[in-house]
Fold:
Amino acid sequence: MSQINYSLSSYERPKLKTPNGEKKLLLHSCCAPCAGEVMEALAASDIDTTIFFYNPNIHPVEEYELRKEENVRFAQKLGMPIIDADYDRDDWFKRTKGQENEPERGKRCTTCFDMRFERTARYASENNFDIISSTLGISRWKDMNQINDSGARSSKPHNVPYWDFNWRKKGGSSRMLELSKKENFYQQEYCGCVYSLRDTNNWRASKGREKVERGVKFYQEAKLKLSQSD
Structure:
């Protein structure tokens, strides 16, 4: 039995369907590299999708703006509406107080997911969306169960279902990287918050590596530099 080629150039995307035939989807997006493949899959399925960019965890504000601009750029390319939600980082710091030293995938991440999903679900409820989902789960650096538990828990009070589709399956993660190179998305090197930036730089220092250089690395440019050095 031959193996299916799931690359962007040869993969014939199946038509996705929402769990119960819901018509209007509000998709929480964390960044363009994670969102790109999910957005393309939804566009190919003719699912009425609006992007919701709400990420008050991202630090500093210049990094936030750059990640948002990349999302806006690709949403416009696909003809998808995008909602630019508030950057209420003071509330984020308030909620995560006492969790500054939690590890990646720990309690602070759950708090962060809950905050973003609560806001997404509330907006969906107030603006007649039928269902919500998120791009967070496509990254292999994230705990999918942690994300899906947060999505289901946070959306329930707003009576909006959470779609826990596994965007990684059938080559989703590899197509995410392929699309990021094709679109030359900004390639952030840490999750987003000030604590993840701190921990990433501490780890790099322990390995004798340079600190994260924000705002300069893009997927296609990195690929070109690598090929030129061969």
The longest helix spans residues 107-126. The mean pLDDT is 92.
